[in-house]
Structures are given as C-alpha cells and as structure tokens.
Amino acid sequence: xxxxxxxxxxxxxxxxxxxxxxxxxxxxxxxxxxxxxxxxxxxxxxxxxxxxxxxxxxxxxxxxxxxxxxxxxxxxxxxxxxxxxxxxxxxxxxxxxxxxxxxxxxxxxxxxxxxxxxxxxxxxxxxxxxxxxxxxxxxxxxxxxxxxxxxxxxxxxxxxxxxxxxxxxxxxxxxxxxxxxxxxxxxxxxxxxxxxxxxxxxxxxxxxxxxxxxxxxxxxxxxxxxxxxxxxxxxxxxxxxxxxxxxxxxxxxxxxxxxxxxxxxxxxxxxxxxxxxxxxxxxxxxxxxxxxxxxxxxxxxxxxxxxxxxxxxxxxxxxxxxxxxxxxxxxxxxxxxxxxxxxxxxxxxxxxxxxxxxxxxxxxxxxxxxxxxxxxxxxxxxxxxxxxxxxxxxxxxxxxxxxxxxxxxxxxxxxxxxxxxxxxxxxxxxxxxxxxxxxxxxxxxxxxxxxxxxxxxxxxxxxxxxxxxxxxxxxxxxxxxxxxxxxxxxxxxxxxxxxxxxxxxxxxxxxxxxxxxxxxxxxxxxxxxxxxxxxxxxxxxxxxxxxxxxxxxxxxxxxxxxxxxxxxxxxxxxxxxxxxxxxxxxxxxxxxxxxxxxxxxxxxxxxxxxxxxxxxxxxxxxxxxxxxxxxxxxxxxxxxxxxxxxxxxxxxxxxxxxxxxxxxxxxxxxxxxxxxxxxxxxxxxxxxxxxxxxxxxxxxxxxxxxxxxxxxxxxxxxxxxxxxxxxxxxxxxxxxx
Length: 737
Known about the structure:
- It is a single chain.
- By secondary structure, the protein is an alpha+beta fold.
- The chain folds into six domains: 179 residues, Hypothetical protein af1432, CATH 1.10.3210.10; 145 residues, Beta Polymerase, domain 2 (2-Layer Sandwich); 65 residues, Ubiquitin-like (UB roll); 74 residues, no CATH class; 96 residues, no CATH class; 76 residues, Alpha-Beta Plaits.
- The chain is built from 26 helices and 20 strands.
- Strands 1, 2, 3, 4, 5 and 6 form a six-stranded mixed sheet that branches. The protein has a five-stranded mixed sheet with strand order 8-7-11-9-10.
- A hairpin with a 5-residue loop joins β7 and β8.
- The longest helix has 36 residues.
- The two termini are 73 Å apart.
C-alpha cells in the first residue's frame, strides 16, 4: 500500500481523534489494503480509494467518530466476502474483525451490506417504501449516515463508471438518498447529490444554469452590496446586534422552480436570498424582528402576496421566521428575518418540510426515526449509538416481488397477506409460494428483504381458517367479502334445492316449516346455515327426507323411547362387567374398554379414531351397539345435545393391551430421501408397523399421510415429536379418519 496515498484521511484522523483512535484507523487501512489487494475501480485505481474517500466524508463532513470510520474502511471487505464466501468462512472472517476492531464495527458493516444488497427498482411510486426499508436495515443509526457518505463519493466519481450506470445511480441519488439527507438536515449533502444527479440526468439544462450563475455572479454580489448598504447603516444606528448571510439557490433548486413555474432563469425570483439574523434575549425577539422588517420596508417596497409571518404563528413543525419579498432596482429580493435561536432551530432541522403524522400500532415510523436522528446529529454526533433507540421502523416488514417491486406490510404478515396486497385475485387463488427460492406454505411469516413468489391454482378459493393467520386489513376484508358472497350463493342454492324436493316429495311442509324443524334438530341458529349445509352436501337430501318423514309419522318419538330403554340396559351391563374385573371406584358406572369385553358389543368410531389414552365416551346406537368416540370428536357436540339419553361414560382399562390405527398428516419440503427418513423414524427408531403411506408433491412441497399401529396416545405423541425433528418436515399432526 502506498503510504502517502491516504494521507488526507490520516491527517483528519490525527486532527479529530485521539492518538489511540488514529492508530486504529491506520490498522483498519492496513487490514483493508491487504484484503482488497488487486481489486480496482472502473478506472483502474485501487478499490480502497473509494473506502478511504468515504471515510474522509464520514469523518470530515458528517463528523462521526472512530468506529464508523473503521467500519467504512472495512465495508467493502465484508460486502465482497458476504457474496463470495460460504457461511463458515464468512463467520470466521467477521470473528477476526470483531476480535481486532470490536463488535460495533462488525454490526455497522453488516447493516451497510444489507443496504448494498437491496436492489432498488426505478419506480417513483415505490420510493418511500425503499427509503423505509433502508431505515429498517439501519439498526445502528450511523449506518444510514455512512451510506449517504458512500453515495456522495460515488456521485463525485460517477464519471469513472460505465455510462449505462450514470442514469440509474443519478435517479437513485435524486429520489432516494437526497431525500433522506434532506430529512436529516444534511443540506450540503442533499444539494450536492441533487446537483450532480441533475448534471447527468439533464446535462444541457444543468450547463445552462451553471453558465447563467457564473455570468451573473459578479453582478449579483454588487447588487447585494448596494441592497444592504442603506439597511445596515440604519440597523447599526438602532444598536441592534445582527449579522447577515446571503445564499444562492442550488442548481437543482433553480431548475425545479423553472420547471414548476414554467419560467426562464431570469424569471426565478429567489435565485439568492438575504438572511438577517438578530442576537437578542428571547423576550425581545418579536419586537426586534419587526423593527428590522420596518427598516427593510422603509427602503424597499414589499410584495404583500409574498409576506410570511411565522413568528406570530410558527409553523406546525416549529419553524419561526419572518419572510418578505421586496422590490429593488426592478427585481425581487427575498429577505428572511430571524433570531439566532430561530436560526439554530431551522439549521438543526426541526423545520423540515414534512412532519410526522402518526404511529402505526405504537411502533416508530421511519420519518419519526429520521427526525430524532437529525436532532441527535447536531447535538451529539460522537455518541449516537449510545443515545438512540436501535429499532427503527419496527412494526413493518418489506418484501420484494421477483421483478423487484417492494411491498410494505405490517410486522407478522404472511405470504397470503403479500399475495392479497398485490391483487385480490392473486390472494384468493394462492396455494403457497417461494421465499428466497424456498418452498413455503401460505402461513409463512415474511421478514425484511425476502423475495417472494406467489403460487396459485385456479380451483383455490378463500377459506374461513385463513382469517386466523392473515394480519392485513386488506386480506381480512377480501376473505370476509368472499365468504359472505359464498354464503349468500349457497343460501340461494340450498333454498331452491329444498323447495324443489319438498314439491317432489309432496310433503305437507312449507319451506319455512321444514327449515325451522331442521334448524332445531341440528341446533343451527339461522335458516341460512341449513341452506348452506344442503348446498354443500354436508346435509344430504335423503337424510332431510328421512327426518321430515319420521317427524310426520311420530317414529322419532318412538325411537327416542326405545333408545332410552337400550341406554339403561347397556349401562347396567357395563357396571356388571366393570365390577367383575376391578375394585369399585368413583368411575365404576362407566363402560370400561379393553380386549376382555366380549358380551357387550362396541366398536371404535371411525369419525375420530380413538386410541387408548384419549378421553372418550360411549354412544348407544339402536342397531349397532355402542360406538366409542373421543370427547373432541367433531360429532360429539351434536350427539350430546340431541341425544343426551344415549351417552354413557367410558374409560380405558389401564392394563389393557392392543393396537390402534393412528393416521398422521405430514407436510414437508420435497427433499431427496425425505420419505426414507420418515419410515426409518417410524420403523427403526420406534419399532412401529406402517399400515399405509401416501404422499404427493407439488411446487416443492410434499404432503401426505402415514397410518401406523400404536398402543396408546403416549406413543403417538412421541412419534409425532420425532417426525417433526426430521429436517425438512414442516408440519406433522394426528388426523381423524
């Protein structure tokens, strides 16, 4: 490394830092020089030149301390390694940097890497989302300041880049980075970024304005001197303490005003402005500002349409100043009158041209975060990390479409939320997707920077259970609207079908009487629910006819009496059997289930497939004996409410033996050998017999069922836990079948 090549940075470090910190900067330079050896920029100069130039801006123009400067020098080292090294090698590299320069430096470099890897799409409609994403990545607030310095150095060196990069980088600088600098009050950086961007985006306009400014510079200075002479002479006699600033608008600001007002260069009123700043106690501020205004307007005629009094009534963002535009020598001159305190407030950035409008779910938004950072830059530039909350823009997550569009969603948003955010039709037919090329289900929760591809199927429709995991109001509203439409459609279809069948059956029921009976029978609250069951064939019309016929003939009443008698007989038999095999217990009147019962006919219900260890109950049928159901069986509630006289208690005998069919549904990534690993866990690890296994794959996801024989629920639970530990398995749960 050329020992003199980076003397500017070394001199700044020695001037601004302690000897120890300056030595740390030297070590970082040496480390970066070794790691980046042989790497060059587009013009053939060492890549380290860029890092050193950015570090000079960070130190000299932004005013940050040693660690951010060191992180700036090492940023390209970490960025290149992050792209080219494997996980193990990259972890080892960051460990070495952490040992040499500290964890804080590593954290800043990783934040810079996240921003560098963000692919910004040239789309003005999405620029606010990209700005928020950059803020979200800047957990250490100094990261965003370094990134601004990095972009400024790139723009200063843009001529060395290929021409095809000029327009893109200029667009990004103008629409993203300059806007962030403006919100932070870094007006010099903002103006320079805008001017350079304009130079490359609109070179002819830029050149014309620069030439015009150069042509009029001497005349402008002479005019300002003539303008101020009578004003300053009068002010000096009043005894007011003051000083005067004059500023020329940036090239970009002049160009913007020319376009907005559709005027030539000569038609821009405020190419320059004069600021009179008063030094006085707070209680005299208003009086002295108006005194200065009176002096100015004694000599020059004000434009009443361009008078702005933000002293009597400050702006909502706190800005205070008195603005007037006066006529002198046939031209308009803007004069700003304020005190030192007001000027300090404006310069510190509280007077930005925007204000924070609300908090989303109690989280800090990026604009509030930028606002607070802006004040801290001025107050304590060397202690930002210690004084700042390191969780900007919490409550939001940013994800990309495959073509680079950025979507902003609430924290906790799923792939399904993302799909609905893009388009209702995409969400309604979503069956899953890919996140960073990894197959995921619709419930997948997204993270910052994810690249999301949505997969659809034509026959997919929104489901009621989707409401349980979507978080955006758009997704919830669209799902609810679809379900309401489906419910209304089913109600129409179900009513029409029932009316037609009642006419065919020639039963003496009106449609309302039939629906009222069915609703009472199935414990449904509305007729719409009855119609929905019929339309979706969950309630077969044959069953409806049977129920209505039995009600007409009185058969239902007779069956209820017969069932009650059968229940008494079965309970008596159960008590006798229990007494023969076990001592009396508080549950002695319950049916005891084991393989020794042979004179009481019972069977395990296929609707819920109970296993020894499940909480169960018995249900007495008229012709098929007793069926054993799990207490959480989907039919349990209906049976208990409609036929309480048929329910008997039941329990498993603790020493009973036997095998029960267990069916497990498994969802897994479609990895090579995933089926073999599942069968090994079942057969080899748990010694269980597999009765059936059926899997299908689609879009990188394998879904299927495995049926095994288990002795009880404890074994079933251990097996499911083991399957869930298999790499690639996303879900495994017991199903009733």
